[in-house]
Design goal:
Blueprint (H helix, E strand, L loop, with lengths): L3 E2 L10 H13 L9 H20 L7 E4 L2 H15 L6 E5 L4 H12 L3 E5 L9 H6 L5 E5 L13 H11 L2 E5 L11 H4 L3 E5 L10 E5 L14 H4 L7 H39 L3 E3 L10 E6 L4 H10 L2 E2 L15 H5 L4 H4 L2 E5 L6 H19 L6
Parallel strand pairs: 1-11, 3-4, 3-5, 5-6, 6-7
Antiparallel strand pairs: 2-8, 7-8, 9-10, 10-12
Helix pairs in contact: 1-9, 2-9, 3-4, 9-13, 10-13
Length: 384
């Protein structure tokens, strides 16, 4: 049996075209973009070209793009930068119970610094109600942060509706688009966001590079200091090869979006149908239709997720039980618990996320081997 990689939400392989462009940069453009000589100017030109590519892919201006080390840093910059800059206006932040830990833990850290935090509940599909959000807004609310699509269950949030509320109230709005970028349309104007986070290694660029969109004219400030890089918004010598790679990856993601999204949706739906028809006591977690085209999340009753993953790995299948950032945790997913899934069931979660290299034969092979694995694991326990 061939190896099957169904863990693209954890990380993606580097796209061949991205790798080729990055290699040319690594071997041919070594100057510091801050240097005024020809080597530095060449590097700066490469960075500027990548910035334009990223901006164009999300409907932004190139001046609104700040390069970072990845999605986590982008979330930190967005949330802390907005909170600190607007502290005189208020101290209230709104988020949801299903955010990535990069967002949740940043908000909780700010809470210890005197900010007030409201964590909104979600429904059984993992979706937040915009009316509930509007109902908790206060005069002191300065920031709303809601992810575009959930990294575990794939549910797509009503970001445009929330953005409309935020603009009407004059509140800054940030969305973590790390998982949605390259899978569904991401346009900062249509989403009505002020801040948006991107990660390179989720869209076939290498690890260690990301970007943050900061809308021109908003009240935001950096919290790290050093040189004048990134227009003094994020100090430190630029990761030129990584930036070049992200620019190419963003360009490819935008160019191939419609075709790839449609292709992955077909595979996703076949996977859902095949598993739910052949295995009993399994629940699809997340919204049935408003979900990422590449995301499937099953919750199996009477199963331990860790053991299930080990058995899949022995059959050559790479998958996960949730966020890769929580690997090793003995606690069930905070996302599943927030959706009302019982703790005993949440331990049996399986996230399958498809990508560029996956074909129909991968789905067929998985559907064939999974019932046997579940039957074997359930035979070792007594339901109850």
């Amino acid at each position: 049996m061939s190896k099957i990689y169904f863990d693209h939400s954890a990380t993606t392989p580097v796209h061949p075209e991205v790798a080729e462009e990055m290699f040319r940069c690594v071997t041919g453009i070594f100057g510091n973009p801050s240097s005024i000589h020809s080597f530095g100017r060449e590097a700066k030109k490469a960075v500027d070209a990548a910035r334009s590519r990223v901006a164009e892919s999300i409907g932004a201006k190139k001046e609104e793009i700040v390069f970072t080390s990845g999605g986590t840093e982008s979330d930190h910059l967005a949330i802390k930068g907005a909170a600190y800059a607007n502290r005189k206006k208020g101290n209230h932040i709104i988020t949801t119970a299903v955010e990535h830990h990069a967002v949740l833990n940043t908000c909780k850290a700010l809470e210890k610094e005197g900010f007030e935090l409201t964590v909104l509940p979600v429904d059984g599909y993992g979706m937040v109600n915009p009316e509930d959000l509007e109902g908790v807004i206060k005069d002191s609310t300065i920031l709303i942060t809601v992810m575009h699509a959930n990294n575990e269950v794939g549910t797509i949030q009503p970001i445009s509706e929330i953005g409309e509320i935020a603009r009407k109230k004059g509140i800054l709005f940030h969305t973590d688009a790390v998982q949605s970028m390259g899978k569904i349309p991401v346009d900062v104007n249509e989403l009505k966001v002020d801040l948006l986070s991107i990660s390179g290694h989720k869209i076939y660029a290498p690890k260690g590079i990301g970007a943050l969109y900061i809308k021109q004219g908003i009240t935001w400030r950096p919290y790290n200091f050093g040189g004048g890089q990134e227009r003094e918004r994020r100090p430190g010598t630029e990761n030129v090869p990584g930036i070049v790679a992200l620019g190419k990856a963003a360009e490819l993601a935008a160019r191939n979006l419609a075709e790839e999204s449609a292709r992955l949706t077909v595979l996703r739906d076949k996977l859902i149908k095949g598993i739910t028809e052949r295995i009993d006591h399994v629940k699809l977690a997340g919204h049935p239709t408003q979900r990422l085209p590449n995301n499937v999340n099953f919750v199996f009753e009477y199963i331990d997720g860790g053991t299930m993953l080990l058995n899949l790995d022995m059959h050559g299948v790479a998958a996960s039980s949730g966020s890769a950032c929580s690997t090793g945790s003995v606690n069930p997913s905070h996302v599943l618990l927030a959706m009302g899934i019982p703790r005993t069931m949440a331990h049996g979660s399986l996230r399958l996320t498809l990508g560029m290299a996956n074909k129909e034969k991968d789905v067929d092979e998985f559907i064939d081997i999974m019932p046997g694995i579940i039957e074997k694991l359930r035979s070792r326990v007594q339901p109850g």
